[in-house]
Amino acid sequence: MQFQNTLAFARQMDTSDKLKEYRSEFHFPKVNGNEVIYFAGNSLGLQPKRSPSYVDAVMDDWASLAVEGHFHAKKPWWDYHERLSVPLAKIVGAKPQEVSVMNTLTVNLHLLMVSFYRPNGKRYKIICEEKAFPSDQYMLQSQLKFHGLDPKEALVEIQKRPGEHFWRTEDVVEMINKTGEELALVLIGGVNYYNGQVFNMKAITLAGRSVGAYVGWDLAHAAGNVSLELHDWDVDFAAWCSYKYLNSGPGNASGIFVNERYLNKDDIPRFEGWWGTKKETRFLMKSEFEPIATADAWHLSNPSILSLAPFLASLELFEEAGMPALVEKRNKITGYLEFVLRAIAKEVSGNFEIITPVDRGCQLSVLFHGEGKSLFKYLKNNGVIADWREPNVIRLAPAPLYCSFEDMYRFGQILKAGIVGKG
Ligand SMILES: *Cc1c(COP(=O)(O)O)cnc(C)c1O
């Protein structure tokens, strides 16, 4: 497609955008009375306008039914979470029974380690990417220490090559093969939070499983952003948060994936609680745990219905739009953003480079070689909400559900004015 850096062209793209009506489903913050250009959907997605009514419904049921709401609310609370599994399974490419919603991301990663990180004799090492998201680093380091191991020795971090901004699949696979029988687990962020790279999850999963290791993925930046086929890729487990691309609300619940080969198994170690035992016999209050035949067996507590409510509202939007249409628009809008950035760089000799590789979702990470921070502030004061990462990177994520092509064009004009103003 031949892009043009003009308002008319951007508007024409919006007119032919099949998902254009979804923009009006969201609340946009305002700066100087105008709706912002929102690039931070990879950090906290916008609020769907329909979300409050889902929360209100729970509050109303609580007011009018109290404890009876567990079974007699319009959407009964005792199986409320099950409504999320089907739409979520479509988003991550899983069977519904392989997906569940519970707790929050880092908590779930720890819980999944109980089942999938079981160091045994000489098989104890974990492979992850260098400079993983800090919470994942802390999680892995503390798991290793919990097992009496030294993270410096047992945690193998895949490096980028000198001078490169991305990881190479062949380097990951080579390290997996080299670690071989010592490798217990591969756990990587499927889409890297910093450079926006999408890892080759299929190839890496195959490599890890081939040497007898478990392979899990942190999908915080992947869920709702890129096409996933967790079941077909034969991934062992995964977890993701829902407040980024999935727009469920700040700090909201996490999704997990557990491959069906681990469901209905008696011999899998797992921390257990009453919400993981069979619904049919749960309220008999027996002392014997009977695991639910789905990933729900990993549930501990009865979930916060007030947080699942806006999550359900947001998943309905994904159901309606569908991942294929989202991915199609994502490729176009991200391509257009890249085009606009390059056009502006030429017009005003902008001193920056895009460090996101071609394998990407909607995020572009832009490395500034001059005064990135002051430019970032300029953008913010002029209605562009992006995200700053040390030492000099601005992350731009045009979420396809609510960002428009006109946003990309307008952003380019603001960026240009910011660069010229400083020069
Ligand atoms: C956003 C993010 C988290 C956040 O973890 P929480 O437990 O939800 O606070 C963790 N890991 C990665 C890779 C992330 O991108």
From TrEMBL:
Q: Which UniProt keywords apply?
A: Hydrolase, Pyridine nucleotide biosynthesis, Pyridoxal phosphate
* Pathway(s) it belongs to: Cofactor biosynthesis; NAD(+) biosynthesis; quinolinate from L-kynurenine: step 2/3; Amino-acid degradation; L-kynurenine degradation; L-alanine and anthranilate from L-kynurenine: step 1/1
What molecular function terms (GO) are annotated for this protein?
kynureninase activity; pyridoxal phosphate binding
Which cofactors must be present for this protein to function? Answer: pyridoxal 5'-phosphate
Taken from the UniProt entry, a GO cellular component term is: cytoplasm
Q: Is Protein transport set as a keyword in this record?
A: no
EC number from the UniProt entry = 3.7.1.3
N6-(pyridoxal phosphate)lysine: which positions carry it? 244
What this protein is reported to do is described as: Catalyzes the cleavage of L-kynurenine (L-Kyn) and L-3-hydroxykynurenine (L-3OHKyn) into anthranilic acid (AA) and 3-hydroxyanthranilic acid (3-OHAA), respectively.
Recorded protein name is: Kynureninase
